[in-house]
Amino acid sequence: MTLLSDTRYIFVRYLTKLVRTPILLFFSLFQPILFLALFTQLLGKLSSFPGVLPAGVTYLEFAAAGIVMQNAFGSALQSGNSIVADIDSGFLQKMLVTPLSRPAILLGRLSSDAFRVVVQTAIILGLAYGIGDAENKPFYVNTGVVGVLLIFFTLAFFGLAWSGISLALGMKTRSSETVFAIGGVITFPLLFLSPALFPLSFLPTWVKDVSMFNPVSYCVSATRALMINGYTWSTILPAWGVIGLVAVITMGATLYQFRKVVS
Amino acid sequence: MSAIIKVDNLVEVYSDGTKAVDDISFSVNEGEFFGFLGPNGAGKSTTIKILTTLLRKTSGTVNVAGYDVVKQAADIRKIIGVQSQETTVDGDLTGRENITLQGHFHQMNSDEIKKRVNELLSLVGLEEAADRRGRNYSGGMKKRLDLATALVHKPKILFLDEPTTGLDPQSRAAIWSYLEKLNKEEGITIFLTTQYLEEADKLCKRLAIIDSGKIVASGSPTELKRQIGADSIRISLENCKKDTANAKELIKSMTGVTEIIDSEECITVYAKNAGLLIADIVRALDSSDIRIASVTFSSPSLDDVFMKHTGRRIRTEELVKAPSPMWGGARR
């Protein structure tokens, strides 16, 4: 299967590049880690107000789902820059004059994005565990190993859907500045107009209303459910559905742009 | 000899209406070292992109190694090696990794690749730098590595788009010697574009001179120069504006003079016996009180060939880093 082996070569290439550019890794992990540290310190007292957070849930446990979601966002939005870099340097062209499978170019990139989201999520969960331990308010994923795997899956899936946006934008505009600017503009509203970092009961009514239409809300709820409540399929399955829908749209746009680029 | 590249009535019109390639036809024989010589924007890169399946032609037929460039693009990609104008080395990977990756793109097996990588590293003299990352290479080293990556699968035809643009003379000479070796010893057909007269003259057995999307002349460098038929004397006058007309009048009637044109220096005289004429010209101008700043004599060069067909000289700019539209849009 050339598609599979070609995808693997592209996957390995992007991961090698990532590992050898630690500054990129640092910056994409920096923000979520900063948020993790800051928010848990600033809002740690929320759990002592009755009714704001579910009973017996610490703010750390609550916010962890939002932080890993933010991380998935950030990594995914860097994806488009990689394709812009390959277009600018001529490397994409260099791939295109070989028999290399065309879909493998995209699949390799996407799978490296997904892998990266999983690794970074694992790092953040580890840190959350560390913080919980230090504060004597243990943090752990209630659903155990399988739950962690499901969280990885949800976030990687979510990351792929968002990679699609930055990839399509990158190929359309061929400018990493644009990808960054638009990425930044959409990340924060989507994150803050959802129950990612603040409980819904804490938010004004209009934000609650908006959050109903925000795909991020569904993913955060699913991740949070897996961390705190258990296998609440009535929350998890709709989230996968929403991500799937987003992915169909963003991947459609990506494929459309990619075809224009390679033809 | 059989034609390995055959192009008939090729036209490329970009979406903005620019005619980048305007009805060109040519063929390249198997084992030949063939070149496109022309200034920036002449249509050289566009032609290479069409031949290497990167850009879709507007009309005409293009056949590479017996395959149609549109219908059998996949077959063509297996047997061509391409070095584009941009140096496309992945800076995060080492030299060895760059070549290896390219071998994987060509579906070679790992043992084959390993052997080939070592061969290529020694061909382009990068054995010592093989395990350093591409970003730490000098410009010349990157070009050499780029060439090596294009050769990994032993292509039948090698396409080189301005392989030495922006390089220092030493690196240029090194690239030239590799290319000659590949052509002579391995029989690889080479299609090269260049804006350097010297490069075309030295390497190419046959040339097409291209300007504004059209082939204006073709043949071997010697043939093309012979067509000029005359040496040139470039004369620069201290007061060019005032004296040009007089000077031309004086020189016109001398025996052997075939043509006088205005040029950058001031005027250029083409003549059969130029060496002998110089003294006469100097005397004639001097006695008419026309002061000469300098006189240079030269045998016909490819620049004269270009001049004859286009009325202009090839301006060789040192390209530092031009923005590079790849899939149409702008012309080169």
Description:
The complex is a heterodimer of chains A (263) and B (332). Chain A is 79% helix and 0% strand. Chain A is mainly α and 263 residues long. The longest helix of chain A has 33 residues, at 102-134. Chain A is elongated and about 65 Å long. The relative contact order of chain A is 0.14. The model of chain A has no long low-confidence stretch (mean pLDDT 89). In chain B, 36% of the residues lie in helices and 26% in strands. Chain B contains eleven helices and 14 strands. Chain B has a six-stranded mixed beta sheet, with helices on both faces. In chain B, strand 12 (257-262) and strand 13 form a beta hairpin. Chain B is elongated, with a radius of gyration of 23 Å. Mean pLDDT of chain B is 88; it is low at 317-332. Chains A and B meet through helix 1, helix 3 and helix 4 of A and helix 2 and helix 3 of B.
Features:
heterodimer; A: mainly alpha; 10 helices; 79% helix; 0% strand; B: 332 residues; alpha/beta; four-stranded antiparallel beta sheet; 14 strands; 36% helix
Describe this structure in a few short sentences.
The complex is a heterodimer of chains A (263) and B (332). Chain A is an all-alpha fold and 263 residues long.
Rg from alpha-carbon coordinates of chain A: 19 Å
Report, as a whole number of angstroms, the end-to-end distance of chain A.
Answer: 23 Å
Biggest sheet overview of chain A: none
Radius of gyration of chain B: 23 Å
Q: What integer is the average pLDDT of chain A?
A: 89
- How many β-strands of chain B, per DSSP? 14
Largest interface: A-B, 26 and 29 residues
By DSSP (H or I, 4+ residues per run), the number of helices of chain B equals 11
Shape verdict of chain B: elongated
Count, helices of chain A: 10
Q: Biggest β-sheet of chain B, characterized?
A: 6 strands, mixed
Strand order of the largest sheet of chain B: 6-7-8-3-9-10
User: Helical proportion of chain B?
Assistant: 25-40%
Please provide the count of β strands of chain A.
0
Q: What proportion strand of chain A?
A: under 5%
Low-pLDDT regions of chain B: 317-332
Q: Note the overall shape of chain A.
A: elongated
> Roughly what is the average pLDDT of chain B, rounded to an integer?
88
Oligomer: heterodimer
Provide the β-strand percentage band of chain B.
25-35%
